[in-house]
Write a structure and sequence with these properties.
The complex is a heterotrimer. By secondary structure, chain A is an alpha/beta fold. Chain A folds into 2 domains: about 220 residues, Rossmann fold (3-Layer(aba) Sandwich); about 110 residues, Rossmann fold (3-Layer(aba) Sandwich). Chain A is built from 13 helices and 15 strands. Chain A is globular, with a radius of gyration of 20 Å. By secondary structure, chain B is of the alpha/beta class. In chain B, strand 8, helix 8 and strand 9 form a beta-alpha-beta unit. Chain B starts with a strand and ends with a strand. By secondary structure, chain C is mostly beta strands. Helix content of chain C is about 15%, strand content about 35%. Chain C has 2 helices and 4 strands; from the N terminus they run E-H-E-E-H-E. In chain C, strand 2 and strand 3 form a beta hairpin. The chains are: A alpha/beta, B alpha/beta, C mainly beta. Chains in contact: A-B, B-C. Chains A and B meet through helix 3, helix 5 and strand 9 of A and strand 2, strand 3, helix 3 and helix 5 of B. Strand 9 of chain A pairs parallel with strand 3 of chain B.
């Protein structure tokens, strides 16, 4: 049974985590995601789980590391500068193959930046920290998806024993919308055994969770094993959404998250003027749906890449298409949110 | 015919892998004592330990119970989460002075202040052992290390930090004791202190830490016997052994 | 006097000599054998002086010493 709820994006994240069986949350205050730890501080104890207000993002991510190592479904949330502090822990978790869900409600940067919405942490999510590793990165563009993707992220994390990032932004975190929740959905892997977790060596020898592999060749082998996993994720988990592609569009917009949402308005404006524009919205930013994008861009005259940054995803678009000549980029950095008309003006000037 | 009875042997909680620590290293002794205590408390099957970054990162090769690594300085945080997830298990973290008193200072203080019901074994050998003997926050005044070639200069590097004295006023902290391992009586005392810290957790007393003044013969450029003598004469002068706090 | 003997695990011993320092009877000496790790391991003299006091084993950082108490047959 589904129910309609007027809910703020940050609250949707909390509802989803609780429904998905997350029973360990640690977080540190930072705008624009404060509603998550606030709401979590009473939702999590009510669900019988552990809520800890960490004393830094370093502590948040390492609490999540410990909870994951102990076999719990664990989550932390933060915003851009806080996620920077978590890079160490994320690399360790990927190396140790620990599942967890991390939500980044992005804000403007660099540095302390501002608290306006931004997408400038794309690189940090899809081309992360030290060492060779990847994290599944999901980009919601409405509040239903804030719920759905967070809910699904826990199964993804458990399935692949890898951190999963929800890459949202200040707008999605702060916005209120009526969303439809299917509360009957059950997480698939909630009760799946985790034989690797540390629960005490009952009737067996001690086991280890570690990323330190000092013997020559052993770490290399471990990395190749991780690559097999990431190849499997790349094969199985690419997700994207196509809009207005049935119209056989002459132009294609590539955008994710909030910008994709804005771009849907741009398509309507263009359509009213007789300009056919389609939208390719990657849902998984890693693995990037490159083949699908290539296919969608096959017959268009131009590919417009719009981001709330100086151009980060555009690099993956170039890699996917292998030919940058059709690509036009427009970005708003430092907390700027483009309007539908603004994007349309950009397009209009570049189409004949 | 005379009968024979084994009255002392390698504890069950140690694997058959010989310690790879240098000769006379305090880590070996501390590992052994911990394993003995875990055997005595019959809890090998409920232990989850957190190994640090530093020489003792290899602890998991030697202990036959569940062990996870943690990033440098973050061990008490990882231990906190494991204990919160499994309150019925026994969780301890094992950290060196660089790990606990330098890069992990915030983690140490907040874990202590929250009064987490975990046990922390703090190995103070007054230098960064694994990386080759650099100055640590605990290096003694005038101690020569690879990054204080003229001896620790307090004008530049400040004074050696006394972690237990620093943690003592925190209300969440229940038990703090500093021990050394330089002769049989001190080893026996050290074992008693670590056991008390462990029992504190089992009886839900709360946060306990034992600081072990530990020899690092290789980086101190002393043989094991002289290294112990240096602990007796110099290190324990600055870091006095004994109970710092006990409100158990 | 209680009688005893010790067994030294050559793989674990590092020849640090802390046991030699601890033994009140001088029953342990630096040996001539070199183990796999390259350490010059210690040896039990077995001069009949060992009384299984365990001070050597307690002092051994490497858990390399096993102490065995010899219980003489009382009938003899």
């Amino acid at each position: 049974m589904s129910e309609k709820e007027l809910i703020k994006g940050n609250y949707a994240v909390v509802e989803a985590a609780i429904d998905a069986g997350c029973r360990f949350y640690a977080g540190y205050p930072i705008t624009p995601q404060n509603e998550i730890p606030e709401y979590m501080s009473h939702m999590m104890p009510e669900a019988g789980g552990t809520f800890i207000q960490a004393e830094s993002e370093l502590i948040s991510i390492n609490l999540v590391f410990g909870a994951a190592a102990a076999g719990a479904r664990a989550m932390t949330t933060s915003s851009s500068p806080g996620i920077s502090l978590m890079q160490e822990g994320l690399s360790y978790m990927a190396g140790c193959e620990l599942p967890a869900v991390i939500v980044n409600v992005m804000r403007g940067g660099p540095g302390l930046g501002n608290i306006q919405p931004s997408q400038a942490d794309y690189f940090q999510a899809v081309k992360p920290g030290h060492g060779d590793y990847h994290m599944i990165t999901l980009a919601p563009h409405n509040l239903n998806e804030m719920y759905d993707y967070t809910f699904g992220a826990f199964d993804l994390a458990d399935r692949y024993r890898n951190p999963v990032i929800i890459l949202a932004d200040g707008l999605l975190g702060q916005l209120m919308e009526n969303i439809e929740l299917d509360r009957t959905k059950k997480p698939e892997l909630l009760n799946a055994p985790k034989p690797w977790a540390l629960t005490g060596a009952r009737g067996r020898h001690g086991q280890r969770i570690l990323s330190l592999l000092m013997q020559p060749g052993v770490l290399e082998k471990h990395n190749f094993k991780l690559k097999e996993k990431w190849d499997l994720i790349t094969k199985n988990e690419q997700k994207f959404e196509l809009t207005n592609m049935d119209s056989n569009p002459d132009y294609l917009i590539v955008a994710f998250g909030t910008v994709a949402r804005v771009a849907k308005g741009t398509i309507q404006k263009a359509s009213a003027d007789g300009i056919k524009v389609g939208l390719f919205r990657p849902i998984t930013l890693w693995p990037y749906p490159s083949e699908a994008l290539k296919e969608a861009a096959k017959n268009v005259k131009k590919v417009f890449v719009f981001e709330m940054s100086l151009g980060q995803m555009v690099e993956d678009v170039k890699l996917a298409l292998g030919d940058a000549s059709k690509i036009e980029f427009y970005g708003r950095p430092g907390g700027g949110v483009p309007a539908a008309g603004e994007l349309y003006e950009f397009i209009k000037k570049r189409v004949k | 015919m005379a009968k024979e009875r084994v009255i002392y042997k390698k504890p069950e909680s140690l694997t058959d892998v010989p310690f790879t620590y240098c000769w006379g290293c305090g880590h070996s002794m501390a590992h052994k004592l911990i394993a003995e205590i875990i055997d005595e408390l019959d809890m090998r099957e409920k232990v989850i330990a957190v190994a640090p970054v530093g020489c003792a990162v290899f602890a998991y090769d030697f202990w036959d119970f569940d062990v996870t690594e943690a990033a440098h300085g973050r061990a008490p945080v990882v231990a906190t989460a494991i204990k919160r997830v499994h309150p019925d298990k026994f969780v301890f973290c094992y950290q060196g002075d660089g790990d606990l008193a330098s890069i992990g200072m915030a983690e140490t203080i907040h874990t202590a202040n929250r009064g987490e019901n975990i046990s922390v074994i703090f190995i103070n050998n007054t230098n960064y052992g694994m990386t080759g003997g650099q100055m640590a926050p605990t290096s003694l005044i005038s101690q020569v290390t690879t990054t204080s070639p003229y001896g620790r200069d307090v004008k530049n590097a400040g004074y050696p930090i006394k972690m237990l004295e620093l943690l003592s006023p925190l209300q969440g902290v229940k038990y703090l004791e500093r021990v050394k391992l330089t002769d049989v009586p001190s080893i026996v005392k050290a074992k008693k202190a670590i056991k008390k810290a462990f029992v504190n957790q089992l009886t839900n007393v709360g946060f306990s830490m034992v600081e072990v003044l530990s020899a690092c013969p290789a980086n101190w450029k002393k043989d094991p016997v002289k290294a112990n003598k240096w602990i007796d004469e110099e290190v324990s002068e600055y870091f006095p052994v004994g109970k710092i706090k006990d409100i158990t | 006097m209680r009688k005893g003997r010790i067994k030294i695990d050559r793989n674990r011993c590092k020849g640090c000599m802390l046991c030699i320092d601890a033994c009140p009877k001088g029953e342990i000496k630096q040996g001539t054998a070199i183990n796999k790790a390259g350490y010059n391991v210690v040896e039990f003299r077995n001069n009949g002086e060992c009384n299984a006091c365990m001070l050597c084993a307690i002092s051994c950082p490497d858990a390399a010493i096993e102490v065995i108490e010899i219980i003489e047959d009382v009938k003899k």
